[in-house]
Specification:
Elements lengths: L1 E4 L16 H8 L8 E5 L1 H9 L4 E7 L14 E5 L1 H8 L8 E5 L6 H7 L2 E5 L5 H13 L4 E4 L9 H6 L9 E3 L3 H10 L2 E6 L5 E2 L10 E6 L8 H6 L2 E4 L11 H12 L2
Parallel strand pairs: 1-4, 3-4, 6-7, 6-11, 7-8, 9-11, 9-12, 10-12
Antiparallel strand pairs: 2-5, 3-5
Helix pairs in contact: 5-9
Amino acid sequence: MDTLIEDPNDPRVAIFMGLRDQEVRKVREQPGGDAHGSFIAEGDLVIERALLHGQRLRSVLISARRNKPVPPSWANAAVFRASDEVLTEVTGKPQLRDPIAQFDRPAPLDAQSLLDTHSSFAILENTNNPNNMGVIMRNAAALGIDAVLLDATSSDPLYRRAIRASMGQVFAIPHARIGPLEQSLEMLHDHGILTVALTPSGDTELANVALEPGEKVAVLLGAEGPGLTNAVIAGAKTRARISMSNQVDSLNVANAAAIAFYALTR
């Protein structure tokens, strides 16, 4: 049943306030925060993909002007129809094209178990732009990467902007946090994983990296701009570069990731 919300101070929609502040959301959505271990996702398609992959929907905020029927898949969630005044407090403008949903944040996965059960990985160091994070997740889902591992300095894959950039594909890719990447390389190598540091200074063409049948592989990706740290580049089994033309020195990390995923999973 829909409920009309006309007061921006109504506690039932407090979870949706502060959407535009990444740092605020990071604190609020963690266990112990006032968002009580949840995450926010936007758009009918993204919400449906989250539900498809077993995420639990708590509540949805829609515009009171919305004419599109509420999907049957929302039946167990609270649906709030927000007035223009409420929407202005939430989004900064009195319109809302896409629904905004609150989901339970799932329990974190264990990196060790992912390493034991999967064969291809994207491993991210200080990849802290949410849009890049989301596109990398989408690329991983599309191009055959089994799992994503992230260090503590990388963006939250379940941050709203990352989910949106992934078009909901973040829910299709298992991901877990690992320790500092420099210190985690030994663990990866102990699992028989070929670690490929993607860097413009690589001594091997990406196209020349060859895998043995059944060999596990991990693409190591760094922050936009500075890239991987020198210690991680030095510690990887292979340092690969993507050939460039016209004096272009590098690609956006999400674009470079897509090329590497395609090359190394085929």
